[in-house]
Amino acid sequence: MQFGGIRAVDDVSLTIEAGRITGLIGPNGAGKTTLFNVIAGHYQPTAGQVLLDGQDITGLPPHELFARGLLRTFQIAHEFATLTVRENLMMVPPRQSGETLLGTWLRPSQVRQEEEAVRAKADEVIAFLQIEAVADELAGNLSGGQKKLLELGRTMMTEAKIVFLDEVGAGVNRTLLNTLGDAIVRLNRERGYTFCMIEHDMDFIGRLCDPVIVMAEGRVLARGSAAEVIANEQVIEAYLGRGLKNKPGAAQ
């Protein structure tokens, strides 16, 4: 992905395996969010392909990718502030009969049945995330961590093949971060969700992710377990500006 003379994503080739929680880390400006934007259809890539289950999805708009099961969250939560938590969840499922004026007029019983089913699904998600206490609270009144939980909950309201989480832990206190982490792990293990997540909290990454992919200056720098990439001298140099060999007292 090139912007003028800058290659924000430069010859990146990677595979996100189904059923895994893949971490994507790197210093600020490494190209992580730009890569997410390319995959999720917000940017048309300058070159290359994006494949989902072997099918070319390069440059498809976000709503078409949503229909194919590719979902993405953002660093800053995008909730409907004047709707309740439950209503935010109920907005997600596509092609509801009540979305059209004609459907509301001609098929009121069908609209009611669909709404009851969607409400039941929303209540199931609320229980899964343990946010019953704020189910009827306006989403705009939630804390940052609660809004991130709500964003995660919205991915549960549709059939997701893969979910891209962009700094899900940013601005979240430690207690809610643990709750978020537990929910992500349960979704992965119990429901087979595939996740790829950008995160700067290495403890959080180490607990959830395997493998971890490291980007620097628009390129893939390393891949491995959290322990392996943390010990990788190139990764340390990318983050700190110098390798282990340059530490005082290190063997020459």
TrEMBL record:
Gene3D superfamilies referenced in this protein's UniProt entry, alphabetically: P-loop containing nucleotide triphosphate hydrolases
Occurrences of domain ABC transporter (ranges): 1-242
Protein name in the entry: ABC-type branched-chain amino acid transport system, ATPase component
The species this protein was found in: Serpentinimonas raichei
GO CC annotations on file: plasma membrane
Alphabetical list of SMART domains matching this protein: AAA
GO terms for MF: ATP binding; ATP hydrolysis activity
Keywords of the record: ATP-binding, Cell membrane, Membrane, Nucleotide-binding, Transport
InterPro entries linked: AAA+_ATPase (IPR003593), ABC_AA/LPS_Transport (IPR051120), ABC_transporter-like_ATP-bd (IPR003439), ABC_transporter-like_CS (IPR017871), BCA_ABC_TP_C (IPR032823), P-loop_NTPase (IPR027417)
PANTHER family on file: CONSERVED COMPONENT OF ABC TRANSPORTER FOR NATURAL AMINO ACIDS (PTHR45772:SF9), CONSERVED COMPONENT OF ABC TRANSPORTER FOR NATURAL AMINO ACIDS-RELATED (PTHR45772)
